[in-house]
Amino acid sequence: MKFPLVVLVQQELANLTAGQSSMSHASAAPEEVAETDWPHENATAEEVEVQPVVEQQEEYEIEGIGGDMTVDQGELDEAIVDEMEVDDEEYRTFVEGRDTRLFDNDDTVPEDWATLTWMGMTKPFKVVISNPTTYDVKCLFPGCPWWVNGYLSKGENNFVASIVVGHSCKLSETVVKHRNMTAEFVARVMYGEIVKKTSISPFQIMLAISNRLSYEISYDMAWRAKQKALEWRFGSYKDLYHHLPHLLALLHSRNPGTIIDIDDYQDANGDRVLRRAFWSFGCMIEAFKHCRLVLCVDGTFLTGIYKGQLLTCIGIDANDKVVPIAFAFVESENAESWLWFLSLIKRAVVCERPNMCVLHDRHKGILSAVKKLQEGRNVDVSWLDLHSRWCMRHLAANFYSQFRSKRLEDLFKKMCRQNQRCKFDEIWAMLDKLAMNHMEEVRKKPIVAQEEEPRGLDPIEGEPARVTRRREGGRSVKCFSEWIKNEPLEKWVLIADTDGSRYGIMTTNLAEVYNWVLKACRSLPLTAIVECIL
Fold first, then answer.
1. Considering only CA atoms, which of 274, 505, 312, 272 is closest in space to residue 390?
2. Quick check: helix, strand or coil at residue 482?
3. Which of 5, 226, 305, 471 has a CA between 20 and 30 Å from the CA of residue 40?
4. What CATH number does the domain located at 237-391+511-533 have?
5. Is the pTM of this model over 0.70?
6. pLDDT tens for residues 114-137?
7. CA dihedral 310, 315, 316, 322 (to 10 degrees)
8. For 495-517, what is each residue's pLDDT tens digit?
């Protein structure tokens, strides 16, 4: 029988660290609850059970994970990347200013009541007796004899409904808000669907409850119900955050060649606090020895309780297949976290392989980290022969944000892909002319916002002062050549990649697509994300 990795970690900790402090051992494994089959509305008394049979699930599925991903598909299917960016923007808009607590004390009720069939919940009820052997509920309407009595027979695991008395009360109007319709009840009803498809949205939960039970619930209740169901399946975010180092240590001991690294610090109370975690499985490191000398790195943010970033490093083999290489949880995308991540990739994965090319966007943290590694200054690991190349798609997005023309953006991408000098020069001249004409047309409009004026790219940290002065204040530019003239051609143009470091790969879509595959996992606890990657 298969067990979740968190259970293995807890068993390992229980065997190795018995008697140590609370920081050194894990709590008991959480009980797993299977999806409940709820009786229909006209169920008889014999069909009603106070508690459903609980079975242990052997494994779980994450929708969207699996299958082969080729380089061509990741390069050309930009719709996937764009869809992911839209979803990310919607998430940022939603969580801004929200209180994302898992539990609401006003909604909590005794655990046992929620296992009742909805037959009795069309009208409000209350729990009269609740103990390990007896469970009684009655209707809230005065004078109504509705009553359900359940008992637990000796040697049995399931309650038996022994007495069921029908309702005599009548509802004068449809009840919009039900007393017993809480987030915990919704979580129990939707448990199977949520666990099977962890990416299910609160809107889908609201629709399912409306269709199944004919009651409307709020978005907040649906969101809390999803969090409760995920906690029942994987454990609490806090506990699993604490278990992550132990899980990685367990994977390291059972997978030869696996490299892990934990970066923590001591807070004011003297407790060790996790800040970053890196891992690369031995099979990935071995596979990379047979891959091309090119890596795509990118980051995506986590959507669970504890915010942070998941950094990914993707390689490409000789059959144009995507090969995951390394991963890391970090606090945010900044110069320090990227320097830490790239240094570990060099030390654990690349090792002594020369002339490695890394494709990335123009994030200031990555640019600063790459420059320090190439120069070998103030770093523990130097990477002098590192070839840095920029993602064409991200640079094209910067182009569009300045010139506001999809047609010009497509022409810019076409120019970046050119491998013939005559065609490259021809498209450059055409782009220069069209961009200048486009901006003249924009300036003729009655009202032109100041931010619509194209400005030069932001200066790169550590550039010579003469270059920085030319761009001081991000001054307005008149044509494409003026906008791009200070950027090294070999960074973003295929024809200037004379040593073939790129292997013809112009974007980091490979990493973006893999992040899209992990989209359903980003809201899960850290150990569950590691389990999904496995």
1. 505
2. helix
3. 226
4. 3.30.420
5. no
6. 344 444 455 777 888 888 888 888
7. -30
8. 998 888 899 899 888 888 888 88
